[in-house]
Amino acid sequence: MARGSATYRLAPDPAPPVRHLGGYERFVGFCTDQGVEAGELAADPTRLFRFLRDVGQDIAADATLKNAAGVFAGNTLARARPDAEWTAYEGAPAMVGTDELRFEVGRLLDALREVDEATLQGFITKVSEWAADRPDPPMVQPQPASLPAARAYVRPALPEDTYYAEDGSVIPYGRRWGDGPPDTERYSVTSHTERFAGLHLVARALIDHLAAVYDVEVREDNALTADLVLDVRDVVAPIRVTPRASGAAPLTFVLTGFPGVVVHAGELHDFPFPVCGCDFPVCGCDACDETVLTEAGRLERLVLSVAAGGYAERYPVGRRRWREYALTAFDGSGAESGKGEPGPVDEARLHEAEIRLRDVQGGWEPWPLRQR
Description:
The protein contains ten helices and eleven strands.
């Protein structure tokens, strides 16, 4: 599949996780002045939180002391979980925690100073449950199989057009915001959605490719919309492609009138195209600034990678029983993963998914090739 050209370089070794920060000595001295042993507070988060609430006014009056107390509290939280760590991003305050729960220590100190007993107890319970939840082992990154070059997918020609704003100027979709953030007012505006009509062409081409290359069953039926986890409306055509191998992940393509496509892969994951950070299942608002080419690339990467065996799912994960997926690109261009709550899925379906995914813990298998 043509992707142009690019220059790659090896990334440096990732920095080790930061689990302990220095700079809390001022708080240790403050504890000594209060007749409290700082080491005992570090070993007992519940006692630390109550202490921080009781002396919150004194700490807030001294900026240096407040910073030291925040570092001490953050180190205590990082100590509570083996996978907890400090994170910091440019222009943002440091945080500590895990993917499931992170704490901004400055805001934490401010909140503790004001909370009543019931709120404090609720927070302590939440932290205690988080600390008791031990992480699952890392998900195995699936390794896709290669496909003979003679059977490679070819993207169909997509319609090209020029789109204009109300003032007559050309809208440079894909580049309209440059290096800056989008105009927040544009999140509520969706114009020229017809620019995504090519996604239906790509979806149909992918389905034809899968049917030609792999041993599959293709079924088009409105009832297949039920495969989705997301609540998708304005459905144009639901099409399921099922490989004739029990360990391979089926794919359900749902073409929508947006126009867009939602792909359900395996058991519990939906992938919408186009999509951005909005709350809608399928979104191509003006702030998103996606183009049919970028979304077509994402769609092709997902579908071809699943068929190649580069897809894995896991459920339930951790005490919160999250779902998780991992995807390795069929062409070696990268990998992605994600996890979160299952969403509005009934218990019976979750139970079935849990049983099914036990059989594919190492990842879904590559689809069987159609014999010529």
